[in-house]
Amino acid sequence: MTEVKMENVTKRFGDKLVLDNININIADKELVVFVGPSGCGKSTAMRCVAGLEEITSGKVYIGDKVVNIMPSKDRDIAFIFQNYALYPHMTVYDNLAFGLRARKSIVDVDDPKAKPRKFRPDEIDEKVKVAARILKIEDLLKRKPTELSGGQQQRVAMGRAIVRQPKVFLMDEPLSNLDAKLRSHMRTELKRLQIDLGVTTIYVTHDQAEAMTLGDRIACMHEGIFQQIGTPEEVYDKPVNKFVAGFIGSPSMNFIEGKLDGSDFVTPVFSLNLPESMVTSILKNATDVNNIILGIRPEDIEDREFALNPSVENIVAVKVMVRENYGSDIFLSVLVDSIEFNARVNTATTASVDQRMDLVFDMSRVHIFDGKTEKNLTI
């Protein structure tokens, strides 16, 4: 059982606070994605687990051991980097074997008094071939990195981590150098591989699509703080604040400023009737009901012609500014006076640029955020 825990971890670079008292428990065999915009601290958090950065305060656990002062080489972790970091003068086989040749093994893992020794050549050969078979790169073992595609190089980098048989995988945006099609394929392969190997994994990315598809849980980070930690479904459906709501989801959530008037969300140009439970929650939790923000995802706004049971109270007349056809989806950018937002509508819609149309808001899917604190008032 290998759990990873960060307990009240703070990291400063001089006067700059990079990690602000963060806490997270990562269970054995779990894949947790640290996601957030560039500069939010996610890579630094993972480097603190790896021992590549010294924490300012707090504790980092790998298993039941505090590893704050333990060197990286002794933490039994494998790091997969964004740029592959392969040795260009070595074959794929030698790249995979390099770490094992430099590393010591225990003669008998069941004997605590056993003395470390070098891996035998036959042991190295077996481990390399097993990793190559798992990653389907057996036919590449005699090639050098310059003879490989980007996807093949990434597989070799992953193989070098697999042969180590570490307690923890740490992956720092390993797919970001691949093209979109290959990145999608490798996401699937990486998830399958992590499940098959059963290794506790921390994965860092700024790509929310990667986070949603890969993670057992997502740790959404902003300004050195984990804003929300939860399953992809929890983070998507119940974002704790405006930042998480806007960062997770593509296209991102629409935000419209307004106020509460009775049971209506009111803007200068239109109003929407809120469910009673939402009104109660807003009245109870808002710092100022005259300063609230409605959030709704584009997929929860539909062309009136195709909406199920549209309510007159929640129909908004708009002008279409942009129409984007993705085949399986139609995205509209629309304008109501000075308020602009996006909708993902039925592909049969006849809406075109400069046309006026009616859109229906699914009010059961709306979120209301406090205008001052930006906290979600309706979860």
Low-confidence stretches: none
The total domain count is 2
Gross morphology: elongated
CATH superfamily of the largest domain: P-loop containing nucleotide triphosphate hydrolases
Q: Strand arrangement, largest sheet?
A: 6-9-10-3-11-12
* DSSP strand content: 25-35%
Please report the number of helical segments: 9
The major beta sheet can be summarized as: 6 strands, mixed
In CATH terms, what is the architecture of the largest domain?
3-Layer(aba) Sandwich
N-end to C-end Cα span: 34 Å
Features:
six-stranded mixed β-sheet; OB fold (Dihydrolipoamide Acetyltransferase, E2P); Rossmann fold; five-stranded antiparallel β-sheet; 9 helices; 379 residues; elongated; alpha+beta
Put the structure in a nutshell.
The chain has helices at 42-50, 92-102, 121-135, 150-162, 180-197, 208-214, 232-237, 242-247, 276-285; strands at residues 4-13, 16-26, 31-35, 57-62, 65-66, 77-80, 104-106, 116-118, 168-172, 200-205, 217-222, 225-230, 254-261, 264-266, 271-273, 292-296, 301-303, 315-325, 330-336, 339-345, 356-361, 367-370.
